[in-house]
Design a protein that fits this description.
GO molecular function, one term: DNA binding
Region (Disordered): 1-26
Strand order of the largest sheet: 1-3-2
Structural class: alpha+beta
Organism: Streptomyces clavuligerus
Protein name: Putative transcriptional regulator
Pfam family, one: HTH_5
Distance between the termini: 62 Å
Strand content: 5-15%
Oligomer: single chain
Length: 125
């Protein structure tokens, strides 16, 4: 029996949790836990290659992208795999192996959650 644990999914309270449990930044100060979760997501997206890969998956016509369709980001294939792994660990992407290819999808709640946390306060009247 293995002691390895699967990474928590987005929206959970585990280390791989993404932004869904965080309120808008303008609503109230974040708790330490909320800040930790949000920082993990922003750190994952803070790398230009990871941001390009995330964008390629999020904007793909079918809602998912084969690694073979998104790997042209100016780095080697092992580096692409490393960055995709980091995005998965942050709870931003999910993946499914089909034969020799891996297909990636944006975790369903992530885009809405990212938009929610960055929403601006209404302008004063």
């Amino acid at each position: 029996m293995s002691n390895a644990k699967a990474p928590p999914r987005a929206g959970t309270n585990g280390p791989g949790a993404a932004a869904p449990s965080c309120p808008p930044l303008t609503e109230r100060p974040l708790t330490a836990r909320e800040a930790e979760i949000a920082a993990r997501v922003f750190k994952a997206l803070g790398d230009p290659v990871r941001l390009r890969l995330f964008s390629a998956v999020a904007s793909h016509e079918s809602g998912e992208a084969c690694v073979c369709d998104i790997s042209d980001v100016g780095v080697s294939q092992p580096t692409v795999s490393h960055h995709l792994k980091k995005l998965k660990e942050a709870g931003l992407l999910t993946s499914e192996r089909r034969g020799t290819w891996v297909y990636y999808r944006v975790e369903p709640a992530v885009l809405g959650a990212l938009g929610k946390i960055l929403v601006s306060a209404p302008a004063p009247a």
